[in-house]
Amino acid sequence: MQVFDRATLPNGLTIVGERMPYLRSISLGVWVRNGSADEAPEENGYSHFVEHMLFKGTAHRSARQIAEEMDFLGGQMNAFTSKELTCFYVKAVSTRLQEALGLLSDLVLNPAFPQGELEKEKGVILEEIAMGEDTPEDLAQDQLALAMFGGHSLGRSILGPAEGIRAVSREALLHFMQARYKPQNAVFTLAGNYDWDQALHLLSQAFAPWGGAYQYRNYPAVEFAPKTLFRRKELEQTQVCLAFPSLPMGDEANFTLLILNNLLGGSMSSRLFQRIREEAGLAYSVYSYPSSHARTGIETLYAGTSPKTAQRVLNLMGEELKRLVEDGIPKEEFEKSREQIRGSYLLSMESGSARMQALGRGQLLLGRLRGEEEYLQSLDAASLEEAQALCQKIFLSPFGASVVGPEDLDFSALSEALHG
Fold first, then answer.
1. Residue 176 and which of 112, 291, 327, 339 are 20 to 30 A apart at CA?
2. Is position 407 annotated as part of the catalytic site?
3. Residues of the chain with CATH 3.30.830.10
């Protein structure tokens, strides 16, 4: 039975850790349950902007000092914002735990939000938005979220609209952060080579000043009304995305979905890859993947192909989905996909950073931790019969679609293949 270190500080901050004594590194993360799905329409992009600003100086360090100190430690520091959370993380050699922890806690507890840096960072984020406009695959994926979630906050961009970023004030960002960045709304995770008593002592000191009560309020439930959205853009490739309502994060059937997705489009031996790339030679990039959120999820299929062959690729996607639903999955194919998932998982868990992130997502979004043994047991419990039922449940549901390219596509053949 896998044992995790766990403690809750007097201020309500949950700490979870996993010791990996054979490593010479330690990975640390501060996880805040706040992302773009928690923003009001006029706040869209604030979570991501706050993430940027925490690196632009604190009460004790300038932006340059933060960068130089991290470089001196020989480690890595970064952050990311998603639909449902924001994470700040550090990886360093284990002998530098105190210094790395001091730097990470200073960023989260004492941000300065200097006005000059804020104005410069507006330019950086506007360039990030512009870069997305020049990345057709990203455009198609953002448009797909809108097609699936509509006006719900899950359908909005993580980066926010350019006009909102230009107009945001220092006061608005500070208020937004201070209302959400509370210890009861956060988790601290660590994985690697550490002494638990020493780590807990340092953590208690570093985060003792963090205060204030906050109870997370989940966003409204999603009511799917999928649409087909087109974005006409003169490109060398047409980007084609399909999505179907799927499973929320805590659903145990997600283990079956992992196997099902892998054999559909999650690997080089998958049906979509073999049919569209290897046999037909119509796409370089073609894949599928599940996205699970706290209260909902979607299953996505993607391909980038020539405008001349885009309709053919879309129709082939429909044919493969129809074959999956009507003909089912051979047991040998299902077991092969299960073994592939097992191997990929075990290899990924050799990384301290991966384990730290698994702890953070599990504790923050689900309130539970799943060790290797439990993960593999759940994977083994997935059944072929459940996979067949999931095919019916997911791929016979109304689908959403996103197309970015010079011409619209006809979805009638896909609809006919799936819904008759």
1. 291
2. no
3. 5-207, 228-419
Locate the DSSP E strands across 41-145: 76-81, 86-93
- Which of 51, 84, 117, 299 does the annotation list as catalytic? 51
The class of domain 5-207 in CATH terms is alpha beta
| CA dihedral over 198, 201, 205, 211, signed as positive or negative | positive
Determine contact, residues 261/270, Cβ cutoff 8 Å: no
**Tens place of pLDDT per residue across the chain (420 aa):** 578 999 999 999 999 999 999 999 999 999 999 999 999 999 999 999 999 999 999 999 999 999 999 898 888 999 999 999 999 999 999 999 999 999 999 999 999 999 999 999 999 999 999 999 999 999 999 999 999 999 999 999 999 999 999 999 999 999 999 999 999 999 999 999 999 999 999 999 999 999 988 777 778 888 899 999 999 999 999 999 999 999 999 999 999 999 999 999 999 999 999 999 999 999 999 999 999 999 999 999 999 999 999 999 999 999 999 999 999 999 999 999 999 999 999 999 999 999 999 999 999 999 999 999 999 999 999 999 999 999 999 999 999 999 999 999 999 999 998 987
Its sign, for the CA torsion 27, 32, 38, 40, is negative
Q: Taking the model in full, what pTM does it have? A: 0.94
Which amino acid appears at position 408 of this protein? Answer: D
**Contacts with 109 (C-beta within 8 Å, 6 or more apart), sequence order:** 207, 209, 210
